[in-house]
Amino acid sequence: MTSTKIPRRSLVLGAGAAVGASLLPMRSFGQAKEIKLGQTMPYSGPASAYGTIGKVEQAYFRMINDGGGINGRMINLVSVDDGYSPPKAVEQVRKLVEQEQVLALFQTLGTPSNSAIHKYVNARKVPHLFVATGATKWNDPKNFPWTFGLNLSYQTEGEIYAQYLLKNKPNAKIAVLYQNDDYGKDVLAGVKQVLKGDKAKMIVAEQTYEVTDPTIDSQILTLKASGADTFINITTPKFAAQAVRKVPDSGWKPLHLLNNVGASVGSVLTPAGLDKSVGLVTVNYYKDANDPQWKDDPAMLKWRGFMGKYYRDGDVADASNIYGVLAAELMVQVLKQCGNDLSRDNIRKQAESLKNFRSELLLPGITVNTSPTDHAPIEQAQLARFDGKQWVLFGEVLGGAQ
For position 104, what pLDDT does the model report? Predict the structure, then answer.
């Protein structure tokens, strides 16, 4: 999700690795006594708030192992730090594939990091499952048959915001702040897919930021000066918190739409100020631990029990800790469907064969479906508004523009 430019040398290294690595002997995965998965996470760097995802997933697999594992096999998730740096991600993934000889990659996080390894893992025919990014390009089974998305696609999310504005604020003057990379551009493309023709004039100002920027204060002031009365905020947690704080502090009072990846109550809204977050609008597709309607929900009670036993250091107010468990549940489902055939080919086949899979952590009405021509498991979401304490869902479950 960053705009870090990948040095040419690193790109060549990543592409060339596919040739060199293919000469290495491979383990017989089907006979293995453990299921070894690999993962890169930003445990350091500008997106380190997401590191909790890797930690909660390791905790979830410990719980599964305590219950006997999958068909008697223990899951071993090798989770390493890439610092949210594409060259580092290339280096770490090569180690995971060539030295650790992982069966599959699971939940590698970040649009730029996954972009840097995309061709390599597909050339090596390594399952690249449920990547932790919503870029549209992860759903391209024709050209990248080993890669699967998970998140609601960024483009679909942008389309939902634009449809909401057309219906509820058709004369809006929209200002957009977005991260200057595939992630930010993808959400904006979704907005513009709906707001085209005469409606394109609704967007009166756009500003970008780099993930290495210290703040986005100047961008907020520029957008405010445009006279916009609506703000679409396409940012990751660090910058989302800055924007949520800076907008009201600057005296600007727009309708503020905050993208899902920056909408955590624990890691964004609380440090920004819950009082400054009132009225924010976002989308969600899984339950929010801060929402009182799920207080006695069986799935959320089970999740809280899991957190208390296996991940006590985890913040139950951080939506990432629900997201991570949701992803891990999906991985476990695929492994269960594999039975005793733990070949990479069968892993991919089963990942393409999820039919109306229902995690109880998903919002009602949302199910997971994949096929050989559809590697996007989640394609629906619901709008929510922040009331000062929690996100309050409203409206119907929505999909992207058709």
Answer: 98
Judge if 144 and 129 occupy the same domain.
yes
- 23: which 2 tokens? 């000469």
CA 152 to chain centroid, in Å, comes to 8
How many other C-beta atoms can be found within 10 angstroms of the C-beta atom of residue 227? 10
In a domain, 293, yes or no: no
Contact criterion met (CB below 8 Å) for 394 and 164:
no
71: left (phi over 0), alpha (psi -120 to 50) or beta: left
Q: Of 134, 131, 85, nearest to 106 (Cα)?
A: 131
Q: Which residue has the tokens 């309607």?
A: 293
Handedness of CA 29, 34, 39, 45 (dihedral sign): negative
Q: Which domain holds residue 354?
A: 8-152+303-371
Q: Are residues 264 and 390 in the same domain?
A: yes
Q: Are 314 and 191 contained in the same domain? A: no
Which of 12-21, 168-177, 358-367 is predicted least confidently? 12-21
**pLDDT tens figures, 212-254:** 999 999 999 999 999 999 999 999 999 999 999 999 999 999 9
Residue 83 Ramachandran class (φ > 0 left, ψ -120 to 50 alpha, else beta)? left
Residues 51 and 140 in one domain: yes
